[in-house]
Design brief:
The complex is a heterodimer of chains A (213) and B (111).
Chain A (H helix, E strand, L loop, with lengths): L1 H9 L17 E8 L3 E11 L2 E10 L4 E16 L4 E15 L8 E14 L3 E12 L3 E12 L10 E10 L7 E11 L2 E7 L5 E8 L1
Antiparallel strand pairs in A: 1-2, 1-12, 2-3, 3-4, 4-5, 5-6, 6-7, 7-8, 8-9, 9-10, 10-11, 11-12
Chain B lengths: L1 H25 L12 E7 L4 H12 L4 E7 L4 E6 L7 H11 L2 E8 L1
Antiparallel strand pairs in B: 1-3, 1-4, 2-3
The chains are: A mainly beta (213), B alpha+beta (111).
């Protein structure tokens, strides 16, 4: 069933519904450093237009003991601009190499790829998002993950102010032993900087930083 | 499975790059003669955060005719001030807003 879903997705036949800004303004660069209980990731991308971005993605999965280096393309399939809100639907895909820890005797590398969607809706007070991804890297990785967020801003600041969001993130990885993770977090957003910090239900830290320039 | 994944990835990349080429072609819009009005108020849909405002500042900031741009997230209005004897047509303003990722609701020229 999952394969049929992604086959449809790859062919663009899924009806768009809406994300978390993996595409910037024309000529814009974005650096995203994301850390949670499972992995550390870095993603640097450039947006030639508002419709898509292309960049480099690095991931280190600690428990699964592999690293991933990929070229990632993010495509804004559809945006809904309303007077007081915005919704987006993105397609994300990457292709590259995965390798096990370099310091082990059994270290090996495999061709890797991933594909997924991201969708969001937000106004200046509320935020909802969902994203998923299927990752395949030969014998090293074959898993599906999805996550959703809801957010609320306790106050609405002006342009240039420090913006604060209180959010709840739910991650689901069907193959994992602890397949459901819940992370309350705080998002701080000022100018070109966005910082997120939280702790999940297993006491693991989430720390994300995004710079847009 | 590998072939299947590869086919999916190729499909996705083809779709993304085709859409970008089409977008580039539609950007070939000739700018008309400037209309004289030093300040223009533009109501814009989709302005929900500072990143949105910054996108508009960056895109309009590249225009020679534009002296300054002020984005008000409360009213969803951007105020564009032009340089002396310079202006942008409504069509050009609309295109720049759309290129930034947003939609124009209306444009009001201030004397």
């Amino acid at each position: 069933m999952r394969y049929i879903f992604f086959a449809l997705l790859g062919m663009g036949l899924i009806i768009p519904t809406a994300n978390a800004r993996p595409v910037s303004y024309p000529g814009g660069w974005t650096t995203m450093l994301m850390n949670d209980g499972d992995k550390n990731t870095a993603h640097v991308h450039f947006s030639p237009s508002v419709k898509y971005s292309i960049g480099y993605k690095f991931e280190y999965w600690r428990d699964r003991e592999f690293t991933l280096h990929a070229i990632q393309v993010n495509s804004l399939v559809k945006r809904w601009n309303k007077k007081h809100s915005q919704a987006n639907f993105y397609l994300k895909a990457g292709i590259g190499m995965a390798e096990t820890k370099l310091d082990t005797i059994d270290s090996s590398s495999e061709a890797a790829g991933f594909i997924g969607i991201a969708t969001d809706w937000e106004d200046r007070r509320y935020f909802v998002s969902y994203q998923n991804r299927y990752t395949k890297a030969g014998k090293l990785a074959d898993f599906y993950q999805q996550s959703a967020r809801v957010g609320w801003a306790p106050y609405v600041g002006d342009y240039g102010d420090l913006h604060t969001w209180l959010m709840l993130q739910v991650d689901h990885m069907p193959e994992a032993e602890n397949n459901l993770t819940i992370t309350p977090l705080v998002r701080l957003f000022k100018g070109v900087h966005m910082l997120e910090a939280g702790m999940n239900n297993r006491g693991e830290i989430l720390f994300n930083y995004i710079l847009r320039y | 499975m590998k072939i299947f994944l590869m086919a999916l990835t190729i499909c996705t990349f083809t779709m993304v790059f085709t859409s970008s080429v089409l977008a580039t072609e539609t950007q070939a819009i000739e700018e008309n003669l400037p209309i004289s009005n030093k300040v223009v108020e533009v109501s814009v849909n989709g302005l929900v955060c500072d990143f949105c405002a910054r996108a508009l500042e960056k895109v309009f900031g590249k225009e020679e005719a534009v002296n300054s741009i002020d984005v008000n997230l409360d009213t969803k209005v951007i105020l564009i001030t032009f340089n002396e004897n310079k202006s942008l047509t409504n069509e050009r303003i609309t295109k720049l807003v759309v290129d930034s990722g947003y939609n124009v609701e209306n444009i009001h020229r201030v004397e």
